[in-house]
Structure formats: C-alpha cells, structure tokens
Amino acid sequence: MRRSLLAFGLLALLTSKAFAADYVVDTTGAHASINFKIQHLGYSWLTGRFNTFDGKFSYDPAKPEASTISVNINTDSVCLLYTSDAADE
Fold it and tell me: What's the predicted TM-score (pTM) here?
C-alpha cells in the first residue's frame, strides 16, 4: 500500500510539472479554425470562417508574462457560410 502511494505521488509530481515550450497551430487537421459571426441588419446572423491562417505561441508557466502569440490570417480566404439560394430570399 505504501509503495502504491509513493508511486502515485511520484507520478503526480512528474506529470503535473509543465515545461516551457514553443507550439505551432495545427492547420492541417481539424484542430484549429478561425470563425466569426456578424449581425445582419439586426435581424439575422451571418457566419463565416477564414480558410488560410497560421500561428505559433510560446508559453512558460514559470514566467507567463513572457508568453507570446502570433497569428497570421489571409483575409482573401474568407468563406461566408450561406448558400446562394438563401442569399436570394
């Protein structure tokens, strides 16, 4: 029993410690998206997304104030999520 508690404590200590790291936004899978929603004439909502973007961020739990983030959005890749039939109504 004591050995199990010691092993559990050691595992918790090792897995709870976060390390400083640099990350890249995964744009090739379905892990990231940039979506928006705007109100149209106060009656309806128009939703859309940007299809082309990239980003990176750096995080150090010991110095969170030193964290950085950078996102680049290609505004030409905007995609409004409505059909042409809905636009004609």
Answer: 0.60
